[in-house]
Amino acid sequence: MASNAPPSSSHPNTEVIRKLYAALGRKDGKATAACYAPDAHFKDIAFDLKSRDEIVAMWRLACSGNLTVDVKQDEISADDRVGHGRWIASYTFKLTRRPVVSDLRSEFTFREPGLIATHVDSMDPKEWASDAFPPPIDRLFGSSEWLQRKLARRKLDKFIRDNP
Fold first, then answer.
1. pLDDT tens digits for range 59-84
2. Residue 94 pLDDT > 90, yes or no?
3. Is 6 a domain residue?
4. Could you tell me if residue 103 is inside a domain?
5. Distance, CA of 163 to CA of 4 (rounded, Å)
6. Domain span holding position 101
């Protein structure tokens, strides 16, 4: 039964969030998969994914580059149903070879203990685009969710084909 207690930094689901971020930091796709329910849903400015398999493929793609992860441990909390976290992702955007630093706020839901049901990462798309693309292209990508998603989906589909 779900509690009405506020999210806590010591709840067991907090450890799930920490495990996910640590797995990303180690570039460990198998460990990221263990954090999600089979029918999990992930959404950010580039992706809207509806299964653990797609989510894990996306993390494998992200980790195939020079991703570094800086987790803000004091900003992780969870209860039986929801969780929150903050992490900084730094990497080189392969298309333009430009360095990107993304300050991400994560929102999680848990349907059963120990497994993420939904994961939404939020950030400022205009800040991301100004890192990833030179002007004036950055304004186009920073204001077009459709274009961001189309580019990301194409990249993920190619990665899945090339890395079964």
1. 999 998 899 999 999 999 999 999 99
2. no
3. no
4. yes
5. 43
6. 12-159
